[in-house]
Amino acid sequence: MTALLKVAPALERTVLAVPSIHCAGCMSKIERGLGVHAGVASARVNLSARSVTVEHDHSLDAHDLVHALAELGYEAQARRDELAPRLSAARPLLAPLAVAGFAAMNVMLLSVSVWSGAGGSTRDLFHWISAAIAVPAIAYAGQPFFRSAWKAVRHGSTNMDVPISLGVLIATGLSLYETVQHGEHAWFDGALMLLTFLLIGRVLDAMMRDRARAGVDALLSQAAQGAMVVGGSGGLTWVEASKLTPGMVMRVATGERLAADGEIVTGASRFDQSLLTGESAPIPLHTGDAALAGTLNLEAPVDVRVSHAGHDTTLAEIARLMEASTQSRSRYVRIADRAARLYAPAVHSLAALTVVGWLIAGASLYQALVTGVAVLIITCPCALGLAVPVAQVVASGALMRAGIMVKDGSALERLAGVDRALLDKTGTLTLGRPLPDPAALLALAPDEAAVAIALASHSRHPLSRALGASLAKWNLAAAALKDVSESAGEGVFARWQGLEVSLSRPQGGGATMAAALRIEGRPVRLIPFSDRLRPDCGSALAQLDRLGVECSILSGDRPAAVGEIALQTGLTAQANARPAEKQAVVARLRASGRKVLVVGDGLNDGPALAAADASMAPGSASDVGLQAADLVFVQDSLIALPRAVRAARRTMAVVQQNFALAIGYNLLAVPLAMAGLVTPLVAAVAMSASSLIVVANSLRLVSAAK
Amino acid sequence: MTVLLLLIPAALAIGGVGLAAFFWALRNGQFEDPDGNAARILIEDEE
Q1: Which of A91, A161, A172, A651 has CB 3.0 to 4.6 Å from A148, enough for a Cys bridge?
Q2: CB contact under 8 A, A1 and B43
Q3: Could you give the 3-state DSSP secondary structure of residue A41?
């Protein structure tokens, strides 16, 4: 690692996020393309992280590299610092797993000979070799459990790691004593096998969460947020959002988001505030009007004088609200730890009872203690420790294949209990982006559609992109255009077969969004754009209803717009809700005993998402929404909602079965142990058998997301 | 019996070599980009 990271002092290292890398071809194209670029020493693509690490000299900076990548055909962004070194949850567990696995196999080999009758000095020798392997291995590989158990005990609580750690430590201690005393039984194999099984469960769990997090990271806009600032001489320089100060003038191009709150000094445009307020209709703003950070400029470039930046913006206010509500969720106690609260005292008192019982029956202190310890070893919760993680790993994997990413380990537990859902309107029930009216598109003649595609491909305006994407499904060849020019705020103009053609803003500019397709000598075609309900909205809501989840709309949009959607979906609705009000609604419902699921995408939903029992966001959500939500679904269809709820409930059913299996195993094994009949061989067989049964039962969840 | 004195150290040594190799791989960034490593095999060498 260190050898790779060492950089010659003359070189700089820049990490760029390139979301569109997806195959070996992209990798070699980028590495070779950048490699021959002047000033670049080396370029290495990381496909898992969708990023490129470039070593280069001081003549280049991140912006030059973004340009170089754009020439190669890849959209790239310099990575935000805080996102770059994201720690993997699985990596630190790999080394302990390798050590535990290695030691378990070797000790098991020696144990088999002892079980098959090795005696006398041979058995002593084997026990000593086992001890030499097992004691350092347990000290190293057991650390994840010991640390977590110690943390719980210090805070006066208990979790699953407490009985695990106690079992492992006591088994090791007893085995060492037996080895020194030339005794018959050593339990090193059982202790190591337990650690190996449990570490496998944790590594799988961590890997699944790493993958979900990587998926969500890919959706987050990894661009350093900032703006082009107009300097004194009229020149433009790029300034990061955190370095913007009030008084600076930002030039905001069409399709860009504002990096700070401000006042428009020149120009006029329409702004999409849906992520901020939930309002779906774009708002026209003119010179002198205030524009908010996070809103999207739709029409024409404007100059905005910064009035608030950084911590004073509306965005920062929402972040503060969210921080307060995340704390209430961190009080949730996971089901495995709740089980441990009952389990640990039960098995520990059983072990104590056994010692007392044998003493009363007249056994020696040594014999009574050994039997008591055998009870602790046999009840060491191997199957119980696997019951939850394995079920969740399998279910999360199934959901991920269905396009739903589970970000948080306890999310499925919380989602399973949900009986009330609050849905945001813009971007959640609806797609949250303007789509051309299909009827107007069907009315276009084929050559008109071909001209429209060609014109739309020359503009990055949101309406042009939506039109291009919709027409692309028709598989039309784009018409050949000449003299193409785009005029900001007006449209795209060109010549086609000698005729003047254009795709532009319709005259008059009414309340509805529309684009006008003009072809010289033909009537003007008006294409209206509107936001539409997600596909399968009706059936998804019906399924949620059947699952016993009562839904309603909670939106920040105007009552008229919300009312229309409420009518279409048949849900009750609350409009004009500000972020703090949404959060208050969630708190009120939770206080009355409901388990609330919030589904939302905007910045304004952030506090409600963080305050709810469980939360979901579509992949198109704002960064804030993506980070606050427990689950993220990357598909247009709303069917992801009932699918996730159903999968969560099935997972919890399997977890409960697993608990029942684990407890059933204990009911069989504990009497044997109390009677003093358990040998290391019996313990090893019983532990592996119960673990395998639990894993096999969990594997039934492979189809949980169907 | 004497064969054990040979076999046990041999078994442990072989296992230990495997463990050491895994640790070497872990420290040298072999697990940094599993998807990329799978794709890299398809990249043709430059002529």
Answers
A1: A161
A2: no
A3: strand
Rounded to the nearest 10 degrees, how much is the dihedral formed by the CA atoms of A411, A414, A417, A419? Answer: -90
Which of the 8 DSSP states describes residue A425? I
Check if B45 contacts A (Cβ < 8 Å): no
Q: Determine the 3-state secondary structure of A533 from DSSP.
A: strand
Which secondary-structure segment (H or E) carries A536?
A: none
pLDDT at A5: 47
What ipTM describes this predicted complex? 0.80
Contacts of B16 in chain A (CB under 8 A): 102
Chain A residues touching residue B35 (CB < 8 angstroms) = 47-48
Residue among A434, A490, A494 nearest A458 (CA)? A494
| HEC string for A81-145 | HHHCCCCCCCHHHHHHHHHHHHHHHHHHHHHHHHHCCCCHHHHHHHHHHHHHHHHHHHHHHCHHH
In the sheet with A614-618, reading across from the earlier edge strand, the strands are A404-406, A631-633, A614-618, A596-599, A420-423, A550-554, A573-574
Question: By the CB < 8 Å criterion, does B6 face chain A?
Answer: no
- Element spanning A491, H or E: strand A491-496
> In sequence order, which residues have a C-beta less than 8 Å from that of residue A192 and are 6 or more positions away?
A100, A103, A104, A107, A108, A134, A137, A138, A141
**Nearest-CB residue to A95 (from B4, B15, B23):** B23
DSSP character at residue A492: E
Q: Which residues contact A139 (CB under 8 A, 6 or more apart)?
A: none
SS3 of A413, please?
A: helix
Domains of chain A: 2-79 (3.30.70.100), 226-321 (2.70.150.10), 402-432+534-649 (3.40.50.1000), 435-530 (3.40.1110.10)
Number of other residues whose CB lies within 10 A of the CB of residue B19: 16
Quote helix, strand, coil % in chain A, to nearest 5. Answer: 55, 15, 30
User: For residues A675 and A687, what is the distance between their CA atoms, to the nearest angstrom?
Assistant: 18
Residues of chain B in contact with residue A110, where contact means CB-CB under 8 angstroms, are 8
Provide the β-strand partners of residue A283: A271
Residues 6+ apart with CB under 8 A from A40: A34, A54, A55, A56, A60, A65, A68
pLDDT at A176: 92
What would the mean pLDDT of A456-479 be, rounded to a whole number? 78
Helices (H) and strands (E) in chain B, counts: 2, 0
